[in-house]
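The instructor's notes for this session suggest beginning with a concrete chain rather than abstract definitions. Hand out the sequence below and ask the class to guess, before any prediction is shown, which regions might be ordered.
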Amino acid sequence: MTQFLAKEGVKNLHHEGEKLITTHCCYCGMQCGMHIRLNEKTGKVVGVEPRYDWPVTLGKMCPKGVTAYQTVDHEERITTPLIKKNGQFVKATWNEALDLIEKNFKQLQQKYGKDALSVYGGVSMTNEKCYLVGKYARVALGTRFVDYNGRFCMSSAAGGFMKTLGTDRGSTLPWTELEHTDCFFISGWNAAECHPTSIQWLWKARDKGAKMIVVDPRETQIARLADVHLDIKSGTDSALANGMLHIIVRDGYVDETYVKERCNNYEEMKEQVKLFTPEYTSKITGVTVEKIEKAAHIYGQSPRSVVMFCRGIEQQSKGVDNVCVYTSMALLRGQIGKFASGVATVTGQGNGQGGREHGQKADALPGYRKIADPEHVKYVAEVWGIKPEEMPKAGVSAYEMFDEIQKGNIRAMHVMCSNPAVSAPNTEYVWDSFRKLDFLVVSDFFLSETCEFADVVLPATTWAEDEGTTTNLEGRVIRIRKVKDPIGESKTDWQIMKLIAERMGKGKFFPYENVPEIFEEFRIASKGGKADYYGITYDRIDKEDGVFWPCPSEDHPGTPTMFKEKFDTPNGKANLAVVGWQKPAEVPSKDYPHTLTTGRVVFHYLSGTQTRRVKFLMEQCPLPYAEMHPELASRYNLANGDKVKLTTPRSSMLLDVRLTKAIRNDHVFVPYHWGKELAVNQLTNPALDPISRMPEFKVCAVKIEKV
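After discussion, reveal the predicted structure:
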């Protein structure tokens, strides 16, 4: 019936005039395997089929994945450049739009200097595009101000892994090993809502007797089925993890040989965790002593275990500390570098892993090199064909770029594949910053909330209209295949950057005619770095169904399991965390007596720019809501469906109440996929982690009023 052509990723169908193109989903880090059905006569995508032989998801897809194709030919797609005139967008030619961009970019740099311009990237793009964002900012525009939306996603995990393990790869083991695990310790990861296709691995292991411990202020679907649910107060994760370490040491669960041979700071860490007795830990976290003891004993006695976490622990002003202490649990047990064991942060965005490795970060260069290292700068400058002294210095993090706008240092911004008007914390401040810009360019395929502030909107393509690679949550580099030609006059992000570079007189540095040319340069730029992709080729990806980095040469097998022999630190040993616990930046008070936390729902993705345009998904969850415990609601005479006003020190918003006993009775939960007056991030706290510069999305103080 069908014949699979692996290299082209095409299935020839018995349905006349249709074919299937093999690719991966555009949403989360699971990167579910799929076949897109294309009508060759109309040139439109008409459906999707799961790919049952993709080893990570085995044919599973979530509601977002099965409807993802509906955005490609959507009636609301931007198909021509738009220029704002008298407060309204009008259609323009590419030359008109590029003329305006060139004029403003050059005038602003002549008046205020190179750093008057800035670039705000995104990690739903391919590795090739993410790589090019850093080069575009630093070479084409000559600015130090470049950062990306992954700052709000994976940055604390990156910071924590760099401190403890020496390299930031989201998972130290391939996910196909998870079914052989004896214990999952899961914190701040609502798997069923955020990564539904991952659940099959948990259930396979559970069928073989694996235990599961879940840390969450809400009784999520997996928490409901866990052996122990640690119903923690938001913002107390490092205290809980230190409490776990206390019991692991106290009760003899430490792999002493592993720690002696492979870890630093053991004696200092033991001294630090003495304070965190179960009683002391319980007082801070709100979790009972009995639950803490039970969880520690289950984890400590499990031969193979995986510590897994997500944004719940990372989107805090102490997110890096949290990651370090949870990672230290796996190190004490001697689990990292072994079969079906280790630690994993679960990637939120589709290319959250690859997108942070190759140059979009304010202080980073391709291959996870650092701008602060002269040798790193020298190597990348040579690849790019510029002098080392021409490389701009490090910039600032995503949210801090809005501070620079307020100070008058940044005068223009180019936003790509991101919607910070919704996704950034304290959004009213962000909106005010956009208004203060002299000039804003946005590349997108829908008119997002950020586009509303733009002077020029450039029509970009969807993932189905271009090719390239992404890196999934395991660290496996995979292929995204082009399904169809771009709609209307839209262009790929790499083509847009190339066109602007030419207008800025830097075209010779962007000679690419196709994506494989970018990939070949990108391989060389990453060579020798911590995230080394040099040995990965398109042919290898096709033949091997993805290649794990680091992969330094074409005859290297790739690295499915990290740190088998040594860690990527100066002495080859991991650094156990020696950190205490500090309160969140904002705690409940007389005026704001409760805790607000935020998160996802299964039917939407990030700022909702795509999913809010899919009819089925909107029917399932049309609006955000304020989820609270009936006991908390009763204090304010609130019933299910009533209107409530939530107020934090930053702003207020109105929401419908949704009552559930599956949440702590001192917390309120609101999903974050909506814009404008429905954007919960107008309430959230922009307090930043001192290392990752991650805002504290997951915990702030809130006041409740019945409307």
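Then share the key points. The CA atoms of residues 123 and 150 lie 6 Å apart. The longest strand covers residues 652-659.
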